[in-house]
Amino acid sequence: MRVGFFRYIIAAVLIICGVILVLENIGITELSTKNIWGYIFPSLIVLIGLKWMIDRMRHKGGSWIWGSFFFIFGSLLLLDKFDVIEFAIKDVFKLWPLLIVYFGFLFIGKSSKPKVTIYNGGSKVEKDDNYSFFSVGNHEFNQPNWKVEPTTVKTLAGDFYYDFSKAYIPEKEIPITISSLAGDVHILVPENLEFQVYASVKAGDIDIVGQSVDGINRSLSYVTPNYDSATRKINLTLKLKAGSIRVDYV
């Protein structure tokens, strides 16, 4: 782990200690120096789990399985400390059904994973017009001369990066739909490409060539002036529950 992460952990420990001491002073909790570690330890487990999940979403290592497990385990320990439920470290074995959940998601993701081949020296992802899958991961389309095809992608979480300035785009209208519970979508389009986009987020922000909105239940539409008469054009539908959508000219 990097030095920056250890600094983050130290800062987190200090913040947690301060919050716990404030709660003790106002009578919400009764603590002593002896049992304060019982709050710090599960809080650190939660933070480590969050870091691993965020790293996985950013394609910088990490693990959805271990990250989510640590997050759930630490959260249950904290709930026990605040007398919401009864859960001790020895009860970790009660979480074994999570293995079934993880295997289920892995099975869905693997069975629906797109086939990757080579197209004129670049990467080509072959999909049917109604292709979709339900998984976790990042999707990057920025190889030279990658071919744009009708696409429908559904994910639990992930980042999407499309660079249409490097793409081979056939002379037709090409629909592309992206739907995700959480993630970021960043799309680059050349100025000579006609496109229309409908973007929506339940919580987050949208920026389409300078037009932006942010907050809760936001949506934004945009269409280039010559879209209707163009023979080569992209029709984008982008939907996120939480995250950020950005479309820029390049």
From TrEMBL:
Residue ranges of every copy of the Cell wall-active antibiotics response LiaF-like C-terminal domain listed in the record: 136-247
Domain LiaF transmembrane residues, every copy: 10-113
Xref: InterPro entries: 5'-Nucleotdase_CS, Cell_wall_LiaF, LiaF-like_C, LiaF_C, LiaF_TM
Transmembrane segments: 5-24, 36-54, 61-79, 91-109
Alphabetical list of PROSITE patterns matching this protein: 5_NUCLEOTIDASE_2 (PS00786)
Keyword Transmembrane on entry: yes
Transmembrane found in the keyword field: yes
UniProt GO cellular component terms: membrane
Pfam assignment, any one: LiaF-like_C
Any one GO molecular function term: metal ion binding
UniProt KW keywords: Membrane, Transmembrane, Transmembrane helix
Protein name: Cell wall-active antibiotics response protein
UniProt source species: Ornithinibacillus hominis
